[in-house]
Prior knowledge:
About 25% of the residues lie in helices and about 30% in strands. By secondary structure, the chain is an alpha/beta fold. The longest helix has 18 residues, at about 70-90.
Amino acid sequence: MANILNIETSTTNCSVALSVDGKLTVLKEDNSLNYSHAERLHVYIDSVLSSAGVKRSDLNAVAVSKGPGSYTGLRIGVSAAKGLCFALGIPLVSVPTLEVLAHKAEAKSGFIVPMLDARRMEVYSAVFDETYKSIETTSAKILDENSYSNLLQKNAVFFIGNGVEKTKAIINHPNAHFDSQLPSAEQMCHLSYCKFKKQEFEDVAYFEPFYLKDFIVISS
């Protein structure tokens, strides 16, 4: 039996889930518009474990959403995950954030485009088919009225994430569907368990979040 603690902090949603053999047991998250990870993440971890009646020593692995996303959010999530793995001597599993987000969409046919807001008219996005098979890997895209036109001409396209607000402002197509949901640790459960079974673990000492782009400090 594999007890895996799943941590998702790539956006404003501070999300923690405990899974047993890939099935969600307990979920706690704050899906607000404000970043609260530094204050709430460890509280949520303790709450999830307590609700499940699971001790930290009972954990078999910790999984973290690796990015892209908020620089600060990812740092907090990864730091917490690595700290637990170091202390408990258990493996670290990382799951691509956009793959996690894609699994929040349910499409009978067509394409799923998870997208997270970046600077200005830019998004971090990827493309999956209705079975969640990767069609295009994660990249940073600058949006314009012709973005994703090759997909929209073929079938329905389900855009999901906090990048959809700026997307639907410039893309007007009958095949375009928009959903502003955020990534959650709930969708990590099955994905992290699959990697756990394959022993696809990260090097706890050297693992870093997948920022995709360098962090830029803007002075006032």
